[in-house]
Design brief:
alpha+beta; 6-stranded antiparallel beta sheet; 4 helices; 20% strand; globular
Length: 228
């Protein structure tokens, strides 16, 4: 499938349906804590050991052809990548997947929603899962009405709103790219690359926005999931 080539490093959605299946910045009312709080930040003192392990371990997966953590091999798709990152903290975020139907992103979203762990913020914490809608025309109906098509994991968050996240790029595999929810329409290049990486696939019909901030859905505290 053709992709939108706009920068040397292009952010793509995951097309593997088992891993990845509105207007920009306007998630469904069913998601919690909207509109965004006026100002909310996290501090390193609030970061748990699990969050640190997820972020540092996840970063070590960049560029890997095979996702192996603690002897377990995870699928090469967006859900497989976040599962692998969480495995560094010995957290199996797929533990309750059998309770739900749908692709991996939808099952993960439903898992966190059932536990009250979804939330909105401009300044997420390392280890947070990040969900996106409309990264491509998943149902092939020619409209931008495709919910929960991609997932990644936050590695860092800065006071200016700059977020670095890990996700699975269909061509490059695990990559780290950027998003800034305080400047969702800014597609300029910053010191560390594009302020908001492009994510919607080239040729996808409908108007849903193009970059990671415009397609953002919600964050989730997967590190607080009750698992064995």
């Amino acid at each position: 499938m053709m992709i939108r080539v706009i920068s040397p490093v292009v952010t793509l959605c995951c097309l593997v349906m088992l891993g990845c299946a509105s207007m920009p910045g306007t998630p469904p009312e069913a998601d919690p804590a909207y509109p965004f709080p006026a100002r909310d930040t996290w501090s390193p003192a609030m970061q748990s050991e699990a969050q640190r392990l997820i972020a540092t371990g996840g970063a070590s997966l960049v560029g890997k052809k095979t996702l192996v953590v603690n002897g377990v091999t995870y699928p090469n798709d967006c859900t497989g990548l976040v599962r692998a990152a969480y495995a560094f903290a010995s957290i199996d975020i797929a533990y309750h997947f059998g309770r739900y139907s749908g692709n991996g992103v939808l099952r993960l979203y439903k898992t966190l929603k059932a536990e009250g762990l979804l939330y909105a913020t401009h300044y997420p914490a390392p280890g947070d899962l990040v969900f996106w809608d409309n990264t491509y025309d998943a149902n092939g109906n020619g409209r931008a009405d495709d919910e929960l098509t991609h997932v990644g994991v936050v590695l860092s968050s800065e006071p200016d709103g700059s977020i670095r996240y890990l996700h699975y790029h269909i061509r490059l595999g695990p990559v780290v790219e950027a998003m800034n929810l305080t400047r969702p329409d800014d597609e300029s290049d910053g010191p560390g690359g594009r302020v908001n990486a492009f994510m919607r696939m080239r040729g996808s019909p409908g108007t849903a926005g193009d970059n990671a901030a415009q397609l953002f859905r919600v964050f989730g505290k997967g590190y607080e999931l009750p698992t064995p």
